[in-house]
Amino acid sequence: MAFLFSFRMSNSINLLKKFSQFNDQWSPKIIAECNGQLIKLAKIEGEFVWHNHPDEDEVFFIVKGKLLLKFRDKDVHLKEGELYVVPKGVDHFPVADKECWVMLIEPKGTKHTGETDFELSVDEKDQKWI
Ligand code: NI
Question: Which one of 51, 53, 71, 72 is most buried, counting C-beta atoms within 10 A?
Answer without folding.
Answer: 53
